[in-house]
Amino acid sequence: MPASYSRFSGGNIGRLAGLSDGVFAIAMTLLVLELHAPVVEAIHHQSPIWESGALDAEQALWQALVLLAPKLLAYFMSFLTLGIFWVGQQTQLNQFERVNRHLTWIHLAFLASVSLMPFSTALLGEYIDYRLALAVYWLNLLLLGLMLLASITYGHRAGLLKADVDHHIRLAHRRRIVIYQVLYAVAVALSAINTYVSILLIVLLQLNSAIAPRIWRLSSF
Questions:
Q1: Any idea where the domains of the chain sit in the sequence?
Q2: What's the alpha-carbon Rg for the chain, to the nearest Å?
Q3: HEC string of 14-51?
Q4: By three-state DSSP, how is residue 105 classified?
Q5: Higher model confidence: residue 200 or residue 33?
Q6: How far apart are CA 94 and CA 30, in angstroms?
Q7: What is the per-residue DSSP string for 165-199?
Q8: What residues contact residue 198 under an 8 Å CB cut-off, 6+ apart?
Q9: Contact status, residue 118 vs residue 27, Cβ threshold 8 Å
Q10: Pick from 22, 37, 111, 119: which is nearest to 74 by CA?
Q11: Which residues pair with 96 in a beta bridge?
C-alpha cells in the first residue's frame, strides 16, 4: 500500500524550533527600523555652542525626542510581546514528543502572526491616539494566542505530547493563554476612555508575564 505523504512530512521538532528562532529574530529586528533619529534643522544649522542659538537647538532636539515617544512606547511593548510569545512557543515545543504535518502548519500560522507584529507596531506607533490602530494591534495579539492554544489542544488530541505532560500541565498552558487574552481584550476595551490607558494596562500585563513567576511566584497565572 502506498505511503501517505502526510504521515512523514513536517515531523522535525528541531527544524521547527530553528525556523521559529529565525522568524522571531527578524521580527524583533524589524521593530527597531521604525525608530529614526529625528532630523532637526535648528541643530544642523546652529552656531557653535558658545554662541546664541545653541540652547534653542537643544530644546528643539528634546521636543523632537518627545514626538518620537509613541513609537518608542510601541517598540517597547512589541519587544515584550515577541519575547513573551517566543518563550510561550518554546515552552510548548518542549512538551512535544514529536510533531506532525498538521502541528507544523499550526506553528507556521503562529509564525505568520509573529511576522505581522512589525506592521501592527508601526501602525500603532504612527496612530497611537486612534482606537482602530490599537484594535489592529490587539488582533495580532489574539492571533498569536489562538495559534498557541490550537497547538497545545491539537497536540494533546493527536497524541504528540510527552508521556509526563499530564492534565494539570495542559490546563496550565490553556489557562495562561485564555486569561491573558481576556485581559488584553479588557485593556483594549478601555480605549473608549483613552488609548494610552489601554497601552499602559497591556504593558503592565506583559511585565507581569515576564517577571511575576520570579518575584511574586504566581506560577499558576
A1: 5-215
A2: 22
A3: HHHHHHHHHHHHHHHHHHHCCCCCCCCHHHHCCCCCCC
A4: helix
A5: 200
A6: 27
A7: --HHHHHHHHHHHHHHHHHHHHHHHGGGT-HHHHH
A8: 134, 187, 188, 189, 190, 191
A9: yes
A10: 119
A11: 161
CA distance 80 to 149: 19
Residue 153 CB burial class (10 angstroms; 0-12, 13-18, ≥19): middle
Which grid cell is 121?
A: 507596531
The grid coordinates of residue 219 equal 506560577
User: What is the pTM (predicted TM-score) of this model?
Assistant: 0.83
Give 93-146 pLDDT, tens digit per residue.
999 998 999 999 999 999 999 999 999 999 999 999 999 999 999 999 999 999
How confident is the model over 7-62, as pLDDT tens digits?
A: 545 557 888 999 999 999 999 999 988 777 766 555 555 545 444 455 576 777 77
pLDDT single digits (tens) 148-163: 999 999 999 999 999 8
> What's the one-letter identity of residue 78?
S
Query: Which three three-digit cell numbers place residue 112?
Result: 505568520
Name the packing angle between helices 131-157 and 167-189 (round to 10°): 170
Task: Kindly report the length of the chain.
Answer: 221
Predicted pLDDT at 44: 53
